[in-house]
Write a structure and sequence with these properties.
The chain is mostly helical. 53% of the residues lie in helices and 7% in strands. The two termini are 27 Å apart. The mean pLDDT is 96. It binds tryptophanyl-5'AMP.
Length: 336
């Protein structure tokens, strides 16, 4: 079994990254950069499990990669690449489709949420989404996966798949994955409904802060964010049953590198009007340098594409031998 640590995580190019993606995942990726071997992937194969306009998908894939770099991921220190460029993912995903049980997939809450009422009309890809996710991680024998809280169930399933593969074939080949779900913002909620997660796919743009939102848009969305009529509590216990207040306090704590209790020590007793002004200013200040870097990077799309090709080559050099070994274990005749 493995003794080294390797990080893998992925992000869908199904829209502009949101504050949820940034605070729940990307920022933690940047913080861990350089500490251990790390691999980050823009998951276009996952994105097409729901309809994507082809031109937009290509543009958004490049923009998502650029956004990761603008947030601070350095392609000289970590691998950044596009999922469909490394075929090892789909090769291993097929094997995992044959290891995973239908009963396990039926329990996935994200499938139920995304498929909605008409499950029969959902794509088969959406159903097997988590087996591809398991393949993404295990094709690199990665064992640390930094994600937001919404991915927890998928990572448990990935461990079930790895364990069943090892058991069925009598090997100790795939490692156990450890989810890294960190920080006060592991779950950033919608600005319109504090019980729903902030998401790229919410039809209302006012429900989220996009990493590319300008000053006016951020100020407007925060001003319009749903709240309750009470002033802010003095202590964290007072956030109980107040999901919108909890969310806004958590966001301010995250962008100012503080904790909810410290935010409430400073702002407890204030009404939301005053608090929202502070929050909007903090967000604008935090995101401005990222937005500037993103603009500069997108001035040279050919350079982004070159960096992504380079990332894919290095990623394939790690994943190909691991997946070839999985294929040998399964009993496929060697190709060469
Ligand atoms: P995706 O693209 O939905 O989100 C990317 C990352 O952002 C986190 N996140 C959030 N964190 C806190 N609050 C939120 N509101 C919020 N919204 C999103 C997600 O938890 C995630 O970490 N299935 C994955 C992509 C994926 C992947 C993988 C992840 C594909 N293969 C392998 C890890 C390992 C997804 O849809 O992420």
């Amino acid at each position: 079994m493995l003794t080294h640590k390797r990080i893998f995580s992925g992000i869908q190019p199904s829209g502009v990254p949101t504050l949820g993606n940034y605070l729940g995942a990307i920022r933690n990726w940047v913080a861990m950069q350089g500490k251990t071997d790390s691999i980050y992937c823009v998951v276009d194969l996952h994105a097409i499990t729901v309809w994507q306009d082809p031109k937009q998908l290509a543009r958004q894939t490049r923009e998502m990669a650029a956004a990761l770099m603008a947030c601070g991921l350095d392609p000289a220190k970590v691998l950044i690449f596009v999922q469909s460029h490394v075929h090892a993912h789909t090769r291993l995903a097929w094997i995992f489709n044959c290891v995973a049980r239908i009963g396990w997939l039926n329990r996935m809450t994200q499938f139920k949420d995304k498929a909605g009422k008409d499950r029969e009309a959902a794509s088969a890809g959406l159903y097997v989404y988590p087996t591809l996710m398991a393949a993404d991680i295990l094709a690199y024998h990665a064992n640390l996966v930094p994600v937001g809280d919404d991915q927890r169930q998928h990572l448990e399933l990935a461990n079930d798949i790895a364990e069943k593969f090892n058991h069925d074939y009598g090997v100790a080949f795939f490692p156990t994955i450890e989810p890294l779900i960190q920080g006060v913002a592991a779950r950033v909620m919608s600005l319109r409904d504090g019980t729903k997660k902030m998401s790229k796919s919410d039809p209302s743009d006012q429900s989220r802060i996009n990493l590319t939102d300008d000053r006016d848009a951020i100020a407007f969305k925060i001003r319009r964010a749903k709240t309750d009529p009470e002033p802010l509590p003095e202590h964290v216990s007072g956030l109980e049953g107040r999901p919108e207040a909890r969310n806004l306090v958590g966001i301010l704590a995250a962008v100012t590198d503080s904790l909810p209790e410290n935010v409430l020590r400073e702002h407890g007793g204030k009404g939301f009007g005053a608090f929202k002004e502070v929050l909007a200013e903090a967000l604008i200040a935090h995101l401005a340098p990222i937005q500037e870097r993103l603009k500069r990077l997108l001035d040279d799309p050919a350079e982004i594409d070159r960096l992504l090709r380079q990332g894919a080559e290095k990623a394939a050099a790690i994943a190909d031998p691991i997946v070839a070994e999985a294929e040998r274990i399964v009993g496929f005749l060697p190709r060469g």
